[in-house]
Each structure stands twice: as structure tokens, then as C-alpha cells.
Task: structure prediction
Amino acid sequence: MTGTGRIAKTRGSQLTKNKMSHDAGNLVQTSRALFLGLIVVAFVPAGAAEHYRGRPFHDSVYHGGPQKIPGRVQCAYYDLGGEGVAYHDTDTKNKGSGTLNPADGSYLNEFRMHEGVDTSYTKYHDDIDENPYELVHPPKDQLYVGWTDPGEWFNMTVKIEHAGRFQVSLLYTSKLGGIISLASNGKDVSGPIKIETTYNAADPIAWRQWHHWNYAKNLATVTLPKGTNVLTLRIESEGNMNLAYLDFSRAE
Ligand SMILES: [Ca+2]
Ligand SMILES: [Ca+2]
Result:
């Protein structure tokens, strides 16, 4: 190595030269190992299953382990593990559970109320989530992730029955339209997924623009490996989306 040679030439005896050369060689080797290590660290995605510290969601109602593909994957069942591990949210408060939906001892109002991701559920009273301006009626008491902002993401550990291509459909609302993406074990598998807006100017109630539900069938096609994987859903732009569930079906 040039570095070794340069150090050796500045020293006196052959012994010193040899020792210095040896030490410098070790230093070069150590530096190289460190450098390669840093490259490996830099290229191992945050969600990679091998180093992943998040866990499949479970509580008193849901304890089915990793959600299954093909099948329905609930966004509100994003992984346990907290900020920076299982999700990233712009603040530590849940703006739905325990806030908009006051803590009253009920399962739905207090669902994951101490986590940063903002969760709520569909309500049929007062024409909130059963209104004349939505494209589909969502199920009642359907949990969803809302108050979404660009840059936010959450992980969902899934178990995929067979490797292959899957169609992805989504139950959602979107005030402004936007873009999301999906990654598997930290690697993008969808590219940008465009979400059509569900804004309807005819609705006289401003806040209800967040409650015009739609089902986007075959919104994207993704190729997934077999087995347990960490899916990451990321809000790429706009936000203001409510995300209820993703349906994965085999692509023909
Ligand atoms: Ca939040
Ligand atoms: Ca949020």
C-alpha cells in the first residue's frame, strides 16, 4: 500500500521499517475491515428482517402473529417496537386514540393511544364515515392510520405463503391525492404508488373531506419473496390520507 511505503521510508532501521510496515499493514487491514463494515451497515436497510427489532402486533383482540399474504393486511396492526424501529411519525402523540377519540376505557378509543402513529376508526354516527360523498362505505369500527404526513412510515411483519407477484388494493381516503410506496425488508418493491384524491367539492362539511372512503382495486403490483418479511408503507407526498387495509392477491 502507498501509505505503508511512505511511513516505512521515513524511518531508520530495517527492523523499525519492518515493524512499522507490519503495524501499518494491520492498520490498513483494520481500516479496510472498518470501512467495509461501514459499507455493510450503510447498505443494510432499516427494515431488514435479519437485524430488525420490531415485532408483529398483538393485543387482546388480535394475536394472529404476522399478517398473511395473500390476504388482508391491517395498517393499524403495524408492528410493535416504537419510533424509529416499527414506524416513524412526525410527533409522539396519537392524534386519534386518546385525543380525538377520548380515553374512555373502550378498546377502540384507546387503541395504541400511547404510540406516535395516529390511529382512529370509522364511525357511522353523525354521517362521519357513512356519508353521501364517499365512493364506498367502509366497515363500521374499521381501524385505520390517519393524520399521515410525508416522510412517515410504518412496518408490518407479514408471512407470505408463496414467492411471486401480488396485486395490491387499498381501502383509504385522501383529501389531496398523494403518493405512497411499499418496501419489503427495506427494499422498494412498488416504486411510487399514486393515490387518487377523494376530495368532493359538493360536501358542505370541510372536515369530512378526510372521510370520503374509496377502495382502489389493483393499485399496484409487487413481487415478494416467500416467508416472513417486513413490509414498510411510506408516505411519499401530500399526506392527509387515512389508510385502513391493504389486500394482497396473486397476480395472474
Ligand atoms: Ca402522531
Ligand atoms: Ca402521523
Q: What stands out?
A: The CA atoms of residues 155 and 232 lie 4 Å apart.
